[in-house]
Amino acid sequence: MIKGFKEFILRGNVIDLAVAVVIGAAFTGVVTAIVNGLINPLIALVFQADSLGEVVIGVPNVRGGTTDFAIGLILAALINFVAVAIVVYFVFVYPMNRLKERQEARKNIGEPEDEPVPAEQALLTEIRDLLANQSPPAPRP
Prior knowledge:
- By secondary structure, the protein is mostly helical.
- The chain has a domain at 2-96: Large-conductance mechanosensitive channel, MscL, domain 1 (Non-ribosomal Peptide Synthetase Peptidyl Carrier Protein, Chain A), CATH 1.10.1200.120.
- It is 70% helix and 6% strand.
- It contains four helices and two strands.
- It has helices spanning 2-10, 12-47, 71-108, 119-134; strands spanning 57-60, 66-69.
- A two-stranded antiparallel ribbon has the order 1-2.
- Strand 1 and strand 2 form a beta hairpin.
- The longest helix has 38 residues, at 71-108.
- The radius of gyration is 33 Å and the shape is elongated.
- 5% of the residues are buried.
C-alpha cells in the first residue's frame, strides 16, 4: 500500500496539479483584488450604490411589501469567475497549447509522411504476393 501511494505521489501529474492549485489560488487573490478594487466600484457607480454587493432589486410581493434580490452579489461572483477564467486561459492554457504545438511541429519536421498507395497498386501487390506463395519458382535455363 505504501509503495502504491509513493508511486501516486511521485507521478508528474500530481506534482503539476499541486503547483496549479497553488498558482491558481495566488491568481485568484490578485484577480479578486482587481475586481473588488476596480471593477466592482465602477459597476456600483452605474447602479448608484457604495459597492456591487449592496446592489439590490426590490420586487413587489403579494403582501404589499417588496422582496429584495441581491443581484450585486451574483454579478460580483460572475465577474470574479470570468476574470479568473480569462487569466488562467491566457497565462496558462494558451501558452501551453502553443508550446505543445511547436514541440509536435519539431517532431514531425524530419519524418516523411506515408503517401497512400493507389487502390490499383495495392491490389496488384496483393495478387503478386499470392502468386509468389502459390507456385514454386520456375527453373531457369
